[in-house]
Design brief:
rod-shaped; 2 domains; single chain; mainly alpha; 6 helices; about 75% helix; three-stranded antiparallel sheet
Amino acid sequence: MADEIKEAGSSTSSKTSGWVRLGFAFTGAYFVLVALAWITSGPTSLVDIKPGMKLNEFADGLAGLFAPLAFLWLFVATMVQSQELALQRQELQLTRREFEQNREVAKEQAAEARNQAAYIRTQTEIIVRADADRHLNALIDGFREFLSTYLMKPMAASDGQKSTHILALGAHPGSSLGELIAHFSNTADAVGANLKKYPDRKLHADWVALDMLRNMLNEINVLIPETSPTQKAILESAEFDTLIDAVAYLADTAKPQRTGGG
C-alpha cells in the first residue's frame, strides 16, 4: 500500500514538473520573440513610447507586454494545483484502503486472541477437572476404607424388648461404588420399612460413624461440579444421590434422642 502511494506521488510529480517545464519553455520562447522584435524593429515595436508619456501609460504598455506570460503562468499554476488535488484524492483513497486492510487485520488478530483465550481456558478446565477427578477418587477410596473400618457392626431396630436385625453396613473389600450405593439404599429401605411396621422401635447403629460418613459424602458432593463429564456420568449412572439420601436418612434416624434431664 505504501508503494502504491509512492508510485502515485512520483507519477503526479512528474506530471507537475512537466507543466512547469512547459511554462518555462513558453516563457523562454516569448522572451526570445520579444528580444528579436526589440532588435529588429526597436522598442517602439513593442511599446508605443511617445514624448511626454506619463508613467502610468508606460506601465500599461508594459502590462500589456507581459500579460500573455501572466495568463500562461496562471494556466500552469491551475494545472499544477489540479494535479496536486488529484494526488491528494488518490492518497486519501489509498489511505482509506490501508485503514480498511488494517481493520481487517485487527479483526483477525482479535479473533485469534479469542481462540487462544478459549484454548487456554479449555486446557485450564481440563487440568482443573483432572485434579478434581484425582481428589474425588481419593475421597471415594477413603469412603470405602472408612466403611470397612468403622461400620462393620449390624444395625437393629428395637423397642427394648423386641428387636429386628437389619444388616451390616460394612463394605466388602473390592466393592464397587455401585455396589456400595445399592447396599446403603437397601439398608435405608429396610430400616424405613421396619420402623413403619413397628413405630415404637428405634434404630440402633453407630450414629457417630454415620454422621462422619455423611460429612464425607457432602464433601464429595461439593467436589462433583468441578469434575470431568466422564466422572459425572459415572456417578450419575451409579445413582450417587441415592447414596447421599440413604446415609442422611440413616444418620438422622440413628441420632440419639436427648432426654429431658440431659
